[in-house]
Structures are given as C-alpha cells and as structure tokens.
Amino acid sequence: MNKLLTNIVVVVVVYKIRVTNVKTYDLLESLSASGLSVLFYDNSPDSFEGNLPEGFLYVHNPRNPGISDAYNYGYDLCLSMDKKWLLLLDQDTNLDESFFDNLDTEVSFIGGNASYAAILPFVYSVESRLISPCYVGRMGRAKVVNSRVFDSRKRVLSVNSGLLVSVDFLRDINGFSPDYRLDMLDYWFFSMIYKKGKKVLFSKSNIVHELSVLSDDYMSISRYDGLLIAEKRYFKSEGLLILYYFRLVFRCLKHIQKKRYRFAFVTFSFILKA
Hints:
Elements: E1 8-14, H1 25-32, E2 37-42, E3 56-60, H2 68-81, E4 85-90, E5 93-94, H3 97-110, E6 116-124, E7 130-132, E8 134-136, E9 142-144, E10 155-157, E11 164-166, H4 167-172, H5 185-195, E12 199-209, H6 221-237, H7 241-257, H8 261-272
Parallel strand pairs: 1-2, 1-4, 2-3, 6-12
Antiparallel strand pairs: 4-11, 5-12, 6-7, 6-11, 8-9, 8-10
Helix pairs in contact: 6-8, 7-8
C-alpha cells in the first residue's frame, strides 16, 4: 500500500471547467479510497453542482484570486489535518498512478531530513518538450535540467503543477506569498528555497502539462499585463529592477522581430511607465 496517500493533501486549481473534467479526476477518485485527501479550489464564475466522493473537498471562489489563495487553503488543511506534504496540481496536468508510487519511494528516501523542501517531477509540454525543472540565473534566464541529480550550488525553478511541497518548509516561510497570486509565484517560492539553503529532490516521474506562459501563442494580452506587473514586483524585491527594464527592451525588440506587435506595444508602454 502507498503510505504517502494518507499523509498528503492534493490541491487542484480549477477554472471554467467542471471538476469532473479535470484530467486527473478519475485517478484521484480511485486513490481517495486509500485515504487520499483532495481539495478542488474552483475560481470559476459559477460553482460546481454535483456530488463528490468522500475525501474530496470543494471550495468555490468566484473572485478568481489566482493560485496562491488556493495553495494557502491547501496548506491550512495540511496543518489542521496534520499532513506532512502538499501536492500542487492544475486542471490540465496529466499523470498516472506511477506518479504517486514514485513519490512514495522518494518521500521514504527523504525520511525526516528537514533539508528537503520539495520534490520536483520532470514536466513536458503537450509537444513533448521538456520545460521543467530548470536552473536559473538571478535575472530568470533558464536552462532545462539535464540530470536528475540536484546541484545545490544553483538556483532551481519548476512549474507549480506536480510539485510536492514539505509542510514544514511552508511553515518556515509562512505559506505562499499573497504578493504573487498567479504569475511569478514559482520564482518567489524557489527563491525562498535558495535563500533558506534548502534542497529539492528530482523525481523519477515525467508528467505532461499545458503551460499558459510557454509562448505568446498560449497567452492573452490581459494575462501578459498581469505577468509584467508580477515580474516587476519580483525583480524589484531582488534588487534587479534596472536590469529587468533592460531585459524588457530586448523582449520588445524580439516581439517586433516576430511580428507580435500587440505584445511589443504593451511591453513598450510598460517600460515608459517606469
């Protein structure tokens, strides 16, 4: 039996789809009989009407505050239920039962070692391109990890979905920052891991995830506006605001080169407001 299942809370952030249409729903339902606790945090305008299995909790928040509120709700559940791990999932992430089997082995390997903050799967796009985890420089330039052996000398970064987080580490950093409700929350979280001198474990698991900021083709202008605001807040907190604006200039030129004129205009306008 997978011992981990009774020691984690899974939080799935949902937006404008039925809970039962979440890609991992059937798998999570099958595992709920083994004691898995699952939170569906629904940011959709309309609430879900239907019955959910025992062990499933549904929360509806039509204000659509992003993901940090959902993650903190899951973190609070972990504290109230005395769980040791929080698993973050998006509605469009694909994984199978071997994912939980691997996590069970990997959590057993960590044991009571408090130096580990999280376990990271290898994440692929729907086009089968490896997109996470990465090692990043201070300005966020990323290089995809090519080994499952963690290099503690480097800053690591991963997409949120599929991430298994230590509740003890979340307690140490007072949960997820409300300053990054959607974009750049991953940058903030992994910067805290780096600053606290903690480690991560690369999982054996591979998962597939549709990343909305993978390219402009996946992003709306309104979402891009939000990304720029979150980026500015993060790089300002890191003391890198001037370098960030230089980076935006090159991004603007790149948009023009690729004939993404709307994105170039929004970027240029944002620079002028500095």
